[in-house]
Each structure stands twice: as structure tokens, then as C-alpha cells.
Design a protein that fits this description.
Elements: H1 2-33, H2 38-43, H3 53-61, H4 73-76, E1 90-91, H5 100-105, E2 110-111, E3 128-129, E4 135-138, E5 141-143, H6 157-163, H7 169-173, H8 183-188, H9 193-209, H10 214-225, H11 235-249, H12 256-261, H13 270-280, E6 299-300, H14 321-324, E7 333-334, H15 356-364
Antiparallel strand pairs: 1-2, 3-4, 4-5, 6-7
Helix pairs in contact: 1-13, 3-10, 3-11, 6-11
Length: 369
């Protein structure tokens, strides 16, 4: 019995010693990387309107503004998947169902990039949006497909990003067929981006002033509840509402790691502590996955394999150069945030990696992938 007691005491002592050693090593890393607590992630948000949160939720979940009445923001950003869709690349207009069902149905239009999670997208750290950074702030100016003279009524960069899918043919405007195309597709699709904002605002007002289905009627009623006349609605108002919902309701959360950074040394176990040391030390993951959202929001190439679909010619995806038109930006993609990353598989701009293990293995030796 005495031997057993000594063995137990020794094991407990050893475990505590290991934990203490890990905490000491992590303390050095936290100091070197100037890692912040969860408070910054939860509080440092882009401007948003509390009165528009409810309307934003209605807009996010409604198909009322899609050309064929079959697509909403929530189509590709599902709450149970941390507001991603679980697919390698998204399926837009004409698709049926959720997740893998949209592929199996075979009718939907492929949107040739992975639908990223919306978790924490309203954080101030986001100085650009989308895999290629087509919406960004540079030297204090908002750079967008609409040019730099974008409507100042947008409350935030996220609000501008929120309306881009509404103007995209394969995501919202509708299926391009030989006959019977819808009004939004016919009116907006051939416009230059600088003109789409004005044209789309007019079409949206017409839809809401004369709603043709229940979804559109619900949206019109929700907009009236915010106190604005529908004749004054434009895409900036729509974008501000959707962004307010995302910022308020799909925010960061105080993960165990952020709790640890706030001083709770028991928030994560020894295995996670070893993982954190590898992440910031030998693995050097923290070089790009930095800050409270674990992203530097810069653009890098890790030579992700080209997939079956791509936004560029010959089914390739040239990445950031599609936005900047600079050959030096070919195959660069923005570093993704790792908030809730374990729940947002598959990974990569084209969903090339099925698991996090595959991502790590590829970083170690891409030749064997």
C-alpha cells in the first residue's frame, strides 16, 4: 500500500512538474509574440448598428433578394458548421438542399472557391475580405470592385463585403439559361461593377415596393420596422444590416486558448499546451497565423494543388492576381483565420485538404501530397 501511495504521489508530482514546465515555456512564447487575451477578440469590433441586427438576420436567411428566389447568405454559411458549408467549393444558384446535398443534386452552379466561416468577421482586424482580398482598406481608403469612391454610407468594410454576393451571377443573381432569365440577372449581370451598385439598389427597391412572394413581403415588413422608407433603401443599407447581424451575433468567442491567455492555466490540457508550443516554436505556424483571430490577413502561396474548379481560365485559380491584376500576386491567397477551424473542414481556397492533419502534413512535405 505504501509503495502504491508513493507511486501515485510521484505521478502527480511528475504531471504537475510537466505542466509547470509547459506553462513556463508558453509564458516565454506569449511574451515574445505579445499574445493578447480574449477580451480584444470579443470587443474590438467594426462599427455596426444595433437597430439593424434583426433586419440583418432576416436578410441573411432570406431568399427574397436572389434572382431566382433560391439562394440566401445562409445557403453557404450554415450555423451548425460555424457558418461555412462543409463543401470543398460552394454551390450557388439552382442548387437544392444544404451541404453535400447541393453537390448530389447536380443542378447547382459551382462557385469555385471554398465558403469560409463567418465567425468573427466583424472584428477590426479584418482589413480585407475574400480569398483574394478584393475588398480592402489601404492607406485609409476602401478599395473595392466599385472603385475607391464607394458609397460613404457603408458603416464598415464588412458591410461592403456583405453585398458582393448579391451582385454575383452564380451566387445570387440567378441561373444563366437560354430562356426566361429573371429580372435581377437581366438588369444587373451585364453592368460594369461601378454601375452595379446603383442599378442593383434600384432593382432592390422595386422588389421591396412590390413584393411578389412571401419572402419579399417579410423583408419589406422588416425594413419598415427599422423606421426607414423603402424608397430610401439602397445596397448600403442592406449591407449595413447584414454586417450588423454578423458582427453582433457571429462574433468571436472566448475559446479555451484565449482563456489560457487571460490567465487560466487550467483552461487547456498538457496535450494542447504542447501543441501551442509546436505551433509557435518549431512549427512556426504563428508567423502567419497571428493575433487574436490567428491570421496576419496577408497573402501567401503554399502551392495549394489546383482542383477540379477554378475562377481563372482553364479551371485554374490565380488567387490574388485576379483582384490586383498583378502577375506577382499569382497563386497568393489570404491567410485564413483559425477561429473554430476544427469545425470548418475542408480547408484551403478550393477545399483541397479534407482534414487539419492533411494541412499540417502538406506544410511539412508538399511533394508527397
Amino acid at each position: 500500500i505504501i509503495r502504491s501511495l508513493f507511486a501515485i504521489i510521484f505521478c502527480v508530482y511528475s504531471m504537475n512538474a510537466v505542466a509547470l514546465e509547459l506553462d513556463e515555456r508558453l509564458a516565454i512564447i506569449i511574451d515574445l509574440y505579445n499574445l493578447q487575451s480574449g477580451k480584444e477578440c470579443l470587443s474590438d469590433l467594426q462599427p455596426f448598428s444595433k437597430k439593424l441586427v434583426k433586419l440583418g438576420e432576416e436578410l441573411f436567411n432570406s431568399t427574397g433578394l436572389s434572382g431566382d428566389g433560391d439562394t440566401s447568405c445562409s445557403t453557404c454559411h450554415l450555423e451548425n458548421l460555424q457558418f461555412s458549408d462543409g463543401l470543398p467549393v460552394a454551390v450557388g444558384v439552382a442548387g437544392v438542399g444544404e451541404g453535400i446535398a447541393r453537390f448530389e443534386n447536380g443542378e447547382g452552379v459551382i462557385v469555385a472557391r471554398n465558403a469560409f466561416s463567418l465567425r468573427g468577421r466583424g472584428h477590426q482586424g479584418y482589413e480585407n475580405y475574400f480569398w483574394d482580398g478584393r475588398i480592402q482598406v489601404q492607406d485609409g481608403r476602401r478599395i473595392t470592385p466599385f472603385g475607391v469612391d464607394v458609397d460613404p454610407k457603408f458603416d464598415s468594410l464588412l458591410a461592403i463585403a456583405a453585398i458582393l454576393p448579391i451582385l454575383a451571377r452564380d451566387e445570387f443573381l440567378g441561373h444563366l439559361g437560354l430562356f426566361g432569365q429573371n429580372k435581377m440577372l437581366d438588369t444587373i449581370n451585364d453592368e460594369h461593377y461601378q454601375d452595379r451598385y446603383t442599378t442593383a439598389s434600384e432593382v432592390v427597391r422595386q422588389i421591396l415596393e412590390s413584393p411578389q412572394n412571401d419572402d419579399q413581403k417579410v423583408l419589406a415588413a422588416a425594413i419598415e420596422l427599422t423606421g426607414i422608407d423603402i424608397s430610401d433603401v439602397d445596397l448600403a443599407y442592406i449591407g449595413n444590416a447584414i454586417a450588423s447581424f454578423i458582427t453582433s451575433e457571429i462574433s468571436c468567442f472566448e475559446s479555451p486558448w484565449l482563456q489560457y491567455l487571460s490567465g487560466n492555466r487550467d483552461a487547456i490540457g498538457n496535450a494542447a499546451k504542447r501543441g501551442a508550443i509546436l505551433f509557435y516554436d518549431k512549427g512556426r505556424c504563428g508567423g502567419c497565423h497571428s493575433g487574436p483571430l490567428l491570421s496576419d490577413f496577408s497573402f501567401h502561396s503554399i502551392a495549394t494543388p489546383q482542383g477540379e474548379f477554378g475562377v481563372s481560365p482553364f479551371r485554374r485559380d490565380l488567387g490574388r492576381s485576379e483582384s490586383t491584376l498583378d502577375a506577382q500576386d499569382r497563386f497568393l491567397f489570404r491567410t485564413p483565420s483559425l477561429v473554430k477551424v476544427s469545425e470548418t473542414a475542408p480547408y484551403g481556397h478550393n477545399g483541397a485538404f479534407k482534414t487539419l492533419e492533411e494541412v499540417v502534413a502538406y506544410h511539412l512535405n508538399p511533394v508527397n501530397f
